[in-house]
Amino acid sequence: MISSSDLIGRARELLPVVQSRAAQTEALRRPHDDNIKDLIDAGIIQMLVPAIRGGSESDLKTMYEVVDTLAQGCISTAWIAAFYIGHNLYAAKLSPKAQDEVFGDKGYCLLPAATAPTMKVEAVEGGWNISGRAPWGSGVMHADWVMVSGMTPDKTPRSFVMPVADVTIDDVWHFTGMAGTGSNDIVVDNVFVPDYRSIDGVALRRGDTEGTALHANPIYNIPLVPMAYATIVPVLTGGLKGALNALETIVDRRVRNFSGTVVKDQQHTHITLGEMQIGTQAIDTLGRAHIARTEALIQSGFTTDDRISLKGSAGYLARSGRLLMQDMMANAGSSNYHHDQPIQRFWRDLSTVTSHAFWDWDIAREQVGRRHFGLPISNPIV
Q1: Same domain, 250 and 347
Q2: How far is residue 47 from each of residues 35, 56, 57, 87, measured CA to CA in Å?
Q3: Per-residue DSSP letter, 131
Q4: Residues sharing a CB contact under 8 Å with residue 121, sequence separation 6 or more, in sequence order
Q5: Could you tell me which residues come within 8 angstroms of residue 161 by beta carbon, excluding any fewer than 6 positions away?
Q6: What does the alpha-carbon distance between residue 338 and residue 344 come to, in Å, rounded to a whole number?
Q7: Is 115 in a helix, a strand, or coil?
Q8: Which candidate, 45, 253, 282, 346, has a CA 20 to 30 Å from the CA of 142?
Q9: Are 140 and 186 in contact, with CB atoms under 8 Å apart?
Q10: Distance in angstroms (rounded) separating the CA atoms of residues 336 and 249
């Protein structure tokens, strides 16, 4: 097992390396092979794998520090790292036999998890035949297994795990932001999945499953959606820190065209930069509070009120981060829209990642408001 301090230290050592590959990662339109290898070699991908499988069985606070650090260099890389880390936890919710296969001799998996029920599902003897297309396949470009989802004939959600060799990857990821994630579509054509490699979608969202009974640590009972929020938060906070660092570098050297004014000598610059620094620090504080609350709820259990509140928190963090990033870019100067400038990549990536359906601000604030009036939840992602 690798300690929390060592995991954080290794992420900090990787930061300049990941940062140096950020432009190439974007150009490749998928995670850089060497980044994935480095993350595995550092034990970072394995950090939430149960100890009985050889993992570090770490915690969300450590994951926050690790992913936040990586995002300061490359948001796309941090996004995939966060997904692989968190989805090893999802793998620990599978049946014991499925865990044996998915974790295997390596002791970890590289698992994209598409939980939207887009698949056609047919019940057959011993399992299920699956066909269809799952978009947003973050992690599929280096995957060894994939998880896709659909509605069973009795209209209940269910997720299915299959080797990546059983699916086709459709290269559709031509995105302005998060271009380096390679989140291509997963195409499944009449693949048989044994029943033990499937999982009830209600149980997956609730958190406790047949598989979690193998693990004493309550982190493995975390519901799917609150875990997804915990995945995004450090990508956002770290990305903002990376953008702020890029802005500080710009301000330190910038001279205005025509007037020749040294920007760092202007009072307006002091005020604006101070606002960006305060905002970044405030969002980091909110992010840490979100993770701390989630960890406390892992111990006590998640009520409906808790779930709605966490959705509101994640949505607010995403909205606040997007607005702050827009202000940073607006104050960077027009030359920084050039593709060789790091800040414009942070701007595009954060604009994209904060638009994700799981932390949609309109839906988040609607659910919080509905709760006040005693109305039922009107969105499935809670």
Answers
A1: yes
A2: 16, 5, 6, 11
A3: E
A4: 128, 129, 130, 150, 151, 152, 153, 158, 160
A5: 91, 94, 98, 102, 111, 145, 146, 147, 193, 197, 198, 199
A6: 7
A7: strand
A8: 346
A9: yes
A10: 11
Same domain, 136 and 262: no
- What single string gives the DSSP state of each residue in 165-229? GGSEEE-----SSSGGG--PEEEEEEEEEEGGGEEEHHHHHH---TTGGG--SGGGG--HHHHHH
Rounded distance, CA 309 to CA 314, Å? 9
CATH number of the domain at 340, please. 1.20.140.10
- Rounded distance between C-alpha atoms, residue 48 and residue 219, angstroms: 9
**71 domain-assigned:** yes
Domain of residue 353 covers: 222-372
Q: What is the pLDDT along the chain (382 residues), one digit of tens a residue?
A: 899 999 999 999 999 999 999 999 999 999 999 999 999 999 999 999 999 999 999 999 999 999 999 999 999 999 999 999 999 999 999 999 999 999 999 999 999 999 999 999 999 999 999 999 999 999 999 999 999 999 999 999 999 999 999 999 999 999 999 999 999 999 999 999 999 999 999 999 999 999 999 999 999 999 999 999 999 999 999 999 999 999 999 988 877 767 778 888 888 889 999 999 999 999 999 999 999 999 999 999 999 999 999 999 999 999 999 999 999 999 998 899 999 999 999 999 999 999 999 999 999 999 999 999 999 999 999 9
In a domain, 208, yes or no: no
State the Cα–Cα distance between residues 200 and 187, nearest whole angstrom.
21
